[in-house]
Amino acid sequence: MSEVTIGNHIVGTNKPCFVIAEIGINHNGSLETAKLLIDKAVEAGCQAVKFQKRTIDVVYTAEELAKPRENPFGDTNGDLKYGLEFGSKEYDAIAKYCAKKGILWTASCWDEASVDFIAQYKPTFFKVASASITDDNLLRQHRKYNIPVIISTGMSTLEQIDHAVEVLGKKDLLILHCTSTYPSKPEELNLRAIASLEERYNVPIGYSGHEVGLATSVASVALGACIVERHITLDRAMWGSDQAASVEPGGFERMVKDIRAIEAALGDGKKIVYPSEVPIIDKLRRVGR
Q1: Whole-angstrom Cα distance, residue 257 to residue 270?
Q2: Residue 253, C-beta contacts closer than 8 angstroms, at least 6 positions apart
Q3: Which residues fall within 8 angstroms of residue 100, CB to CB, at 6 or more apart?
Q4: 232-245: string of b/e by CB count within 10 Å (b at 16+)?
Q5: What is the DSSP letter of 240?
Q6: Are 38 and 101 in contact (CB under 8 A)?
Q7: Which value, to the nearest 10 degrees, does the dihedral of the CA atoms of residues 269, 264, 224, 241 take?
Q8: Cα–Cα distance measured from residue 75 to residue 81, given in angstroms and rounded to the nearest whole number
Q9: Closest CA to 42 of 253, 260, 217, 238
Q10: Is 77 exposed, middle or buried (0-12, 13-18, 19+ CB in 10 A)?
């Protein structure tokens, strides 16, 4: 498997797992909530946080925006989408705050103008959402900037992933195995696909999880994931479509701690007798056995 450099981190086999806290829209339109989530990601030991960026009237039709939908910002779907969308003021503050906190940040961009908008902040990587990997023009827009691209592969066939890889090229490309249900059922996570994707594409492979609980995300590292991405929230009971499939701060901290323990426990695969075992040999093993 190749390695990709993201900021000061080398991502690949036998390298420390690169952990992304997906803030997404869990800030609920509040910059202060976004900053709190950044704080919690830093405290948990994450390497990056990720947001989402859309040009609302490009991504959604007028009919879709006009649909009735009760929400904290008004009575229509458009009120919700505009209420959740951060602009220059918020992202200027996010860029400064992440630099101050020493954590990388990026955003999943859902249209070409959003790619250009986020690019002005000089992120160390882009992230393409599962819903967008069949959008060739959007993929090409990402490659106008010479930075690594991570793509998620939820709700995608191998043929669709093949095509996305062909469009993007393998240079500085990273792929995340993913199941796009919120929350995902354990029996639909198919973590063994991580190894299959690594064999097929020979690029760094990670895991983007939407399941309830932490064990399966930690297990993905034992199965070869060199990136783990999970949604982070202050409280899973908060209002919002992604909150229930997210991880609260205490859980995020435990997950990162367990990932580091798994990495240490995996070792190099060579069977040896550790010096710490020698006194136990003398104490417990019969001579000649």
Answers
A1: 24
A2: 43, 44, 45
A3: none
A4: bbbebeeebebbeb
A5: S
A6: yes
A7: 160
A8: 11
A9: 253
A10: middle
Q: Are 143 and 174 in contact (CB under 8 A)?
A: no
Q: What pLDDT score was predicted for residue 288?
A: 58
- Tokens representing 234? 């202050």
Residue 146 CB coordination number (10 Å): 7
Q: Tell me the C-alpha to C-alpha distance, in Å, between residue 74 and each of 67, 70, 81, 86.
A: 11, 6, 10, 17
Q: For the stretch 157-177, what's the b/e string if a residue is b when 16 or more beta carbons lie within 10 angstroms of its beta carbon?
A: eeeebebbbebbeeebbbbbb
| Distance (Å, whole) CA 246 – CA 189 | 16
Which residue from 230, 193, 207, 112 is spatially nearest to 151, judged by alpha carbons?
A: 207
Q: What are the pLDDT digits (tens) for 178-211?
A: 999 989 999 999 999 999 999 999 999 999 999 9
Pairing state between β 74-76 and 68-71: antiparallel
pLDDT digits (tens, 9 = 90+) for 127-165: 999 999 999 999 999 999 999 999 999 999 999 999 999
Amino acid (one-letter) located at 234:
L
Compute the residue count for the chain: 289
Q: Provide CATH code, domain 16-284.
A: 3.20.20.70
